[in-house]
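Sequence only, no structure available. Ideas?
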Amino acid sequence: MNKNAARWRARQWLFGACLLACALVGVSGCASRGAGGPDGSGAEVVTDSDEPSVRKRARIRLELASGYFEQGQTTVALDELKQSIAADPNYAAAYNLRGLIYLRLNDFRFAEESFRKALAIEPQDATVMHNLGWLYCQEARYPQAQQLFSQALANPNYKERAKTWRAQGLCQVRAGQLEEGEQSLLKSYQFDAGNPVTAYNLATLLFQRGDFARAQFYVRRLNNSELANEESLWLGVKVERRMENRAAMQQLGTQLQKRFPRSAQADAYQRGAFNE
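Reply:
I predicted one. Tokens follow.
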């Protein structure tokens, strides 16, 4: 199993859950020599020959902080970021990562302050727009979130469109805009059909709206991949039941009980609690 699949199995597939944040947000500039270029800001990438010494020190600290962040060592990551910002107070990527860390810690005030500082330095950075939009979604500030997602998607240099369409779709569903949410998730799926977050949430939305045939298409593709888990199998069971495909339902139920015998979904299947 590849690393991405292993990481995914550790996540819960809940509608718009905060646990999806790591899949939805990005670290701007951590792999580049500047805050621009690959992250969607459109700025020219700085190379070794012209990178100022202060930016180089700040970048090295940022790369260390990014590594600690990915390992879940938030305190150490914050310490490295302090040194990065001290070396170069105008490094937008450092403030962006600081915002992601505070977002993980559910400290929305400091997260917003960090993202806004990054945008003050790099106003066209679509990655930071995305991250601030996702923060606003967590706070149910849906119009502001929608505006930032739209601005990020309007940037012709932005490379992470699937991520932002997905975040926008989840946010629209939270806001009760189900039709708009479906369209955004479909856009995300068109850009990245292999993403399990998109597939699962799209299938769930279609199932809840009574569009069982289309829900079946997306959840079947997911369950036929190595990224199937107890959530997707259970959704597949319920979809096949609604489609009156008893053989397919039983096959998925058997997989669920065999692979995830202690899960709440396996217990619900055993009890026949399909409407819980």
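The CA atoms of residues 1 and 226 lie 8 Å apart.
Hope that gets you unstuck.
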